[in-house]
Amino acid sequence: MNRKISHSPFRHRLLTGAVLLGFLVLAGRVAELQLLDHDFLKHQGEARHLRTVRISAHRGMISDRNGEPLAISTPVESVWANPRELLPAREQLPRLARVLGLDSDHLLRLLTRRKDREFVYLKRHISPQLAGQVQALEAPGVALQREYRRYYPAGEVAAHLIGFTNIDDQGQEGLELAYGDWLRGEPGAKRVIVDGRRHVVEDVESIRAPRPGKDLVLSIDRRIQYLAYRELKAAVRQHNARSGSVVVLDSRSGEVLALVNQPSYNPNNRRKLHPARLRNRAVTDLFEPGSTLKPFVIAAALQSGRYTVHSRIRTSPGLFQVGVHTIHDVHDHGTLDLTGVIRKSSNVAAAKIALSLPPEDFHGVLARAGFGTSTGSGFPGEADGFLADYHRWRDIERATLAYGYGLSTTPLQLAQAYSVFANDGYLVPVSLLRREQPPRLRRVLEASVARQVRRMMETVVQPGGTAPAAAVSGYRVAGKTGTVHKAEAGGYAEDRYLSLFAGMAPASRPRLVMVVVINEPRNGEYYGGKVAGPVFARIMAGALRLLNIAPDDVPLLHTRARSTEGPA
Predict the structure, then answer these.
(1) Which residues pair with 328 in a beta bridge?
(2) Could you tell me the sign of the dihedral formed by the alpha carbons of 514, 519, 523, 528, in that order?
């Protein structure tokens, strides 16, 4: 029997009402989201996909005076991760660690310790090839960031002068440290939209444009720097020396054209670097200048008016007693004029002259020449040197000071002091940066005195002088040797020496001043004329050619000079 099924109107209306109510709830929720919660939802969406990223700015370039690069910044990639995203996918860690050359356990510990952070560096400054391999992994929360790495084209040739930066591009040594604020760039920022893998899919706006660092132009001539480095390194090896330094100075402008030390280091690879090699010995290491100070004794004597170039000093028998102390010459030189004192490097004569001068006169010449004060080069850690107050000098101190014991200086300071003789009595301020304007000079000696001493120093490199090996073919050279016993506890060592040569060329109108220091030569030779003199000659000959400085010691020039002078 069939039954007829009927639905009551009440049930129908109830069902219809429920459906309409559901639609009304949904519509209300949509309206709430679109109208009331719009700003909140937009902020939440942007927080998950809109990011502010840093735009790296490269450090300024350091170049030599001719524009040759000495320090440049190259773009590199660094790998970073968000531990909150990478840790949940820890099955990816072994592959990622293998590509980065890391231990997987170490990587896990690193991420775990920083699990509350959103940014952790995994590896800095990687190669482009490695960056591609990291991207191919598509590991969650792992991304690349553009940075800059410092590169030094001259390597160890200019390492002590330029210095280096750390992995965060901050100067740590040398001029990189001294001029850090000038070289440092200001990073920029921008807003970007990123996808789920942290890849930038769209630039939204620029917040701040990056500002690259400013370039720095040095006084150094890279050609002369390399020449000086090569010759110094060869000499240190030849004489089995402990270390060495060379400074080459433009006597007119005061610009340092070369400044090198041995041993050096490679600033591009510092993994096995010994801290002792970082020291810029030419600027920071103090030493007693020995007989290279004697030209200043002679200058003080001439300046005082008590002596002339023809004044004669008796040195026989090669000994001179000062109180209980005895001053020695290597040989008995008999009676010497002032030129002979320089040529033969007589300690006895220099001591007698110094003791005959008012202490304030001798001290005044040394102080005005820059001894005891920093050159003002601006190099970090530059030493001042030491020059005692003359009021405290005893006779023996005045005597030993005459041949360079009892005060201390640096190679750079000594080179600056010798610029007095090259500049006809003016001291030139030194600079490690290229100068656009001539510097202001300071008078130290009368011009006639400076020229007279310079002519005396020419005899040092001639036959009968202490350094014929420092002569340069075609050029007149003026200079002075020094062979210094090194100080040790309780006095001076008998078998440890500094071998020095300080000089200039062309002597008729000096353009270059150079100081060579060889520390503790240990292959038999130790006299300054035989150890440091040849280094001076090789570097000076090359530098004069590189700068196209005309010879002043060729037969044709002598003939013309005699023809213009007329009969004597």
Answers:
(1) 319
(2) positive
265 vs 25: CA distance, rounded Å: 76
Same-domain pairing of 360 and 497: yes
The residue type found at 302 is L
Judge whether 17 lies within some domain: no
| pLDDT 10s digits, 239-266 | 999 999 999 999 999 999 999 999 999 9
Please list the alpha-helical segments (H only) found in 442-553. Answer: 447-458, 528-546
Is residue 379 included in any domain, yes or no?
Answer: yes
For every residue of 308-328, DSSP letters joined together read: -TT-EEE-TTSEEEETTEEEE
Q: Return the closest-CA partner of residue 252 out of 446, 509, 540.
A: 509
Catalytic residue positions, numbered: 291
Three-state DSSP string of 179-244:
CHHHHCCECEEEEEEECCCCCEEEEEEEEECCECCCCEEECCCHHHHHHHHHHHHHHHHHCCCCEE
Q: Is residue 73 part of a domain?
A: yes
Q: How confident is the model over 490-530, as pLDDT tens digits?
A: 789 888 999 999 999 999 999 999 999 999 999 989 999 99
SS3 at position 48: helix
CA R_g for the chain: 37
**416 with 539, same domain?**
yes
DSSP 59: P
**Beta-strand relationship, 62-63 and 216-217:** parallel
On whether the CB atoms of residues 141 and 81 are closer than 8 A, the answer is yes
pLDDT in tens, 473-500: 999 999 999 999 998 887 898 889 999 9
∠ Cα 35 41 42 (to 5°):
95
Rounded-to-integer distance, Cα 205 and Cα 1, Å = 79
Structure tokens at 189: 């920022």
Tell which residue, 374, 353, 372, has the closest CA to residue 364: 372
**CB neighbours of residue 230 within 10 Å:** 15
Query: Which range of residues forms the domain containing residue 538?
Result: 222-267+276-565
Total count of domains within the chain: 2
| Torsion over CA: 220, 221, 223, 228 (sign) | negative
**Contacts with 38 (C-beta within 8 Å, 6 or more apart), sequence order:** none
The contacts found for 275-278 with CB under 8 angstroms, 24 or more apart, are 278/160, 278/173
The β-bridge partners of 33 are none
C-alpha triplet 450, 455, 457: angle, nearest 5°: 95
Same domain, 312 and 374: yes
